[in-house]
Write a structure and sequence with these properties.
Blueprint (H helix, E strand, L loop, with lengths): L11 E6 L3 H10 L5 E7 L3 E3 L4 H5 L9 E3 L8 E4 L2 E5 L4 E4 L4 E3 L2 E4 L4 E2 L7 H4 L1 E2 L3 H19 L10 E4 L3 H17 L12 E4 L11 H14 L1 E4 L4 E4 L3 E4 L4 E3 L2 E4 L3 E2 L16 E2 L5 E3 L2 E3 L4 E2 L12 H19 L14 E6 L2 E7 L2 E4 L1 H14 L3 H16 L10
Parallel strand pairs: 1-2, 1-9, 2-5, 9-22, 11-18, 12-13, 12-18, 13-14, 20-23
Antiparallel strand pairs: 3-4, 6-7, 7-8, 10-19, 15-16, 16-17, 21-22, 24-25, 25-26
Helix pairs in contact: 1-7
The structure holds flavin-adenine dinucleotide.
Length: 411
């Protein structure tokens, strides 16, 4: 009716909660649509590029490089900085931490995940997590400041030991980078630094459990050669203010204890539908909980053809964010919704400078310098923002030739 008089119908309001990989991918695709106005909400004004968090934690990159400012990212998208505290799916409204209420026609939940301690005593209090910039800052401070405290006699020499729990890609990358940092720092603290150790603990039988066994073995050998003490079948049963205890009773004393094992979706949203053990909401093939509520990324449990939930990684979140935007556009054209299909482009982990493992397919995998260069190129390509990309590239080139730990003025 409106069209007959030449008046465009009002735009539908899409609210996206979470400006991470999934939320931003969805906003980018919808932003120019004539049918939708898009509001993006996040508690932080930036998108965190988590895959490079370990480089901030180990004083290789400044934190600004991995935080992409979203407020000005897409002119057509309204950005609100707030925590979303509740959703009323009946009234189609959400409540913000600022006390405001916002109504929506479609809601995309892209709230990511958080670390879990599996309820192991002491882990929450006595280990450092690595999920946010603040966490990376804490790790970097602990790694660097401990040297000064040991030199001053405030802390015992065992405080230089670092134990990392979790043999997945994050733990492997962090272990290699911490060992390299310890190598570089020898120049500054020559008399104490050689005594610093790094131990990587994995509860299962091998590192990188989602990779092929040969890649796991490559990572183990490469880390061991670098001087990392790799321990598999080593489940942690308790953390204290000075150590980690293993299931066989052994106690590992370390000044820096990092927990890189396990993530779950935020439990807060479980009331919206059926969820799995990791709090991920079980979505239908189109990634919906109902006609107007979509879930993408780490917060969604979407099973592949064999019924296995997709991994909590950035490519899944990006593809799902784009898929949801495409479905909304199809719906406006009165076209049927399509099920989501994940295009698996493989996985990779870096072990240290010029060392990485890449698996495109189980039968197409490579290691060493070529894998490392592939890792560098892909991470640059996935980064948002030309400025971040240029800055990281420049830092990497600099670090390759003249590596010195990057301290902030508070360290
Ligand atoms: C240390 C680390 C290393 C990683 N390395 C890799 C890697 O090498 N390769 C890879 O593919 N994946 C990696 N991942 C996983 C990858 O980062 C995630 O799979 C990806 O970020 C998921 O995207 P998402 O959009 O679901 O969530 P996120 O990108 O985490 O975004 C969620 C957003 O929602 C916001 N948010 C959450 N709740 C609320 C709320 N209530 N109100 C307002 N805002 C909210 C958060 O602030 C955040 O910005 C890594 C993760 C970590 C922690």
């Amino acid at each position: 009716m409106l069209r007959e008089f030449g008046v465009a119908p009002p735009k539908k309001h899409v609210v996206i909660v979470g400006a991470g990989f999934g939320g931003l991918a969805c906003a980018k695709k919808l932003r120019k649509s004539a049918a939708y106005s898009v509001t993006l909400i996040d508690r932080n004004p930036y998108q965190l590029f988590s895959p490079l968090l370990y480089q901030v934690a180990t004083a290789s990159l400044p934190e600004d490089d991995i935080a992409f400012p979203v407020r000005t990212a897409y002119r057509e998208v309204q950005f609100i900085r707030a925590e979303v505290t509740n959703v009323d799916t009946g009234a189609k409204t959400l409540t913000l931490s600022t006390g405001k209420t916002l109504s929506y026609d479609d809601l995309v939940l892209a709230v990511g995940s958080e670390g879990t301690t599996f309820g192991i005593p002491g882990v929450a209090e006595h280990t450092l997590q690595m999920k946010s910039v603040a966490h990376a800052r804490d790790i970097r401070r602990s790694l660097l400041r401990t040297y000064e405290a040991v030199e001053d006699g405030v802390l015992p020499i065992e405080s230089l030991n670092v134990v990392i729990v979790g043999g997945g890609p994050t733990g492997v990358e962090l272990a290699g980078a911490v060992r390299e940092l310890q190598g570089e720092i020898k120049r500054e603290f020559a008399h104490i630094a050689p005594q610093a150790t790094v131990t990587l603990l994995e509860a299962g039988p091998r590192l990188l459990p989602s990779f092929q066994p040969s890649s796991s073995e490559h990572a183990r050998k490469a880390l061991t050669k670098m001087g990392v003490n790799v321990r598999v079948d080593a489940a942690v049963t308790e953390a204290t203010s000075r150590s980690l205890r293993l299931k066989d009773g052994e106690e590992l004393v370390a000044g820096t204890r990092i927990w890189a094992a396990g993530v779950v979706a935020p439990p807060h949203w479980k009331f919206l539908g059926e969820s799995d053990r990791g709090n991920r909401l079980k979505v239908n093939p189109q990634l919906q909980l109902n006609d107007s509520l979509w879930v993408v990324g780490d917060a969604a449990n979407f099973a592949d053809a064999e019924g296995k939930p997709l991994p909590m990684i950035a490519p899944v979140a990006i593809q799902q964010g784009r898929h949801v935007a495409r479905q909304m556009l199809r719906r406006e054209r009165n076209e049927a919704l399509e099920p989501f299909k994940y295009r698996d482009k493989g996985q990779m982990a870096t072990i240290g400078r010029r060392k990485a493992v890449v698996e495109v397919r189980p039968w197409l995998r490579f290691q060493g310098t070529i894998a490392w260069l592939t890792w560098l190129a892909l991470h640059l390509a996935y980064l948002s923002g030309g400025r971040n990309r240029t800055s990281i590239f420049a830092d990497w080139v600099w670090n390759y030739f003249v590596w010195t730990p990057r301290r902030t003025i508070t360290e």
